[in-house]
Amino acid sequence: xxxxxxxxxxxxxxxxxxxxxxxxxxxxxxxxxxxxxxxxxxxxxxxxxxxxxxxxxxxxxxxxxxxxxxxxxxxxxxxxxxxxxxxxxxxxxxxxxxxxxxxxxxxxxxxxxxxxxxxxxxxxxxxxxxxxxxxxxxxxxxxxxxxxxxxxxxxxxxxxxxxxxxxxxxxxxxxxxxxxxxxxxxxxxxxxxxxxxxxxxxxxxxxxxxxxxxxxxxxxxxxxxxxxxxxxxxxxxxxxxxxxxxxxxxxxxxxxxxxxxxxxxxxxxxxxxxxxxxxxxxxxxxxxxxxxxxxxxxxxxxxxxxxxxxxxxxxxxxxxxxxxxxxxxxxxxxxxxxxxxxxxxxxxxxxxxxxxxxxxxxxxxxxxxxxxxxxxxxxxxxxxxxxxxxxxxxxxxxxxxx
Length: 402
Ligand SMILES: Cc1cc2nc3c(=O)[nH]c(=O)nc-3n(C[C@H](O)[C@H](O)[C@H](O)COP(=O)(O)OP(=O)(O)OC[C@H]3O[C@@H](n4cnc5c(N)ncnc54)[C@H](O)[C@@H]3O)c2cc1C
Fold this sequence. Notes:
Blueprint: E1 5-8, H1 12-23, E2 28-31, E3 43-46, E4 51-54, E5 60-61, H2 65-74, E6 79-80, E7 85-89, E8 94-97, H3 101-112, H4 114-119, H5 127-130, H6 133-148, H7 157-169, H8 171-175, E9 177-179, H9 184-198, E10 202-204, E11 209-215, E12 218-224, E13 228-231, E14 237-241, H10 244-250, E15 259-268, H11 270-274, E16 279-283, E17 289-293, E18 296-304, H12 306-310, H13 313-328, E19 338-348, H14 352-357, E20 368-371, H15 383-399
This protein binds flavin-adenine dinucleotide (FAD).
């Protein structure tokens, strides 16, 4: 009989893995520590704004085929925006970037030249080693922050080069932004849980797995809180679809990766929202992107510095509203109702060391597999990477002989 798979973690990687197995008729149990699924990609109701917010607005691009296929398969809504990225500078000037090799070549071949240096960079090189100051400011720094959540002085040159090649060479389609108009939960998470339950999977929330027991190169039990022990039979498998630090706590060969923060401030401001496109890039400001959903304007800061992360929420709100107000022609005071979300461990720091030490999905235990945005997908740590890692782990489970 086909053995059960215990998937630990109900973020996008765990959901994608569990769904792939359940659809293939495999028995699945999903263990999630939090009271709900989604992990770093989640939605909540904020009582101050009285709106449903995402922890941070997430952007998907056309090239992210896996996460878009995941949404399609569960009936979740992701919508494409105009293929152009309007950018507004702090001095009020605006320009529009339409990503794609042809466009960039027409707009300034010199900005494109670093792509080849990034692609051919030695494994230890960082983005700033390969890109001159002017091209960095115009194109590569905003791209590096958006894609790798890591500043160019620390980010892996090769990882950015590979990702940029896909985005730019694919033209408008690959770089086209997609958003979740009803929120991340409705697009990527809640319908996945419903589908799993319909397929007969056992889904346990509020169940933190605290340890693994192994014998003769196999996982034989999962330990949960309150001294609960779940035995793992000979024909059963375990997939750890956890953030890297949580996976490391259970399986110590997972490397310790430094993490980077993302800070988002959500403002309920109908007039500001009406004055902007759904997505607006900011240059020369603390915030890098403005997102609009309904009457909420969200300002996002990738690779947020320690000062911003440590600052009181009211100070963060005031600082980021200044950026939004400047860009949208709104008054700096009074501050609209605001919710600040600081995700201190948003993604790994995507350095050369990260890029070269990410582990693959297999472990030294025959029935234990790893998934998560930080595993060796070859992609940045993103939704798309998380989904692909989950699918990959599911394929290995299916091929595995007890
Ligand atoms: C603010 C923010 C903005 C982002 N923006 C973007 C974006 O624009 N585009 C993009 O593609 N990506 C973006 N990302 C990255 C994206 O959210 C992640 O790459 C993705 O969600 C990671 O999914 P995952 O399943 O690998 O991990 P996680 O989402 O971290 O899931 C792991 C799950 O494991 C659970 N867990 C932890 N420990 C245990 C345990 N011991 N037992 C049981 N369960 C446990 C956690 O509660 C969690 O639910 C952003 C992330 C953040 C935080």
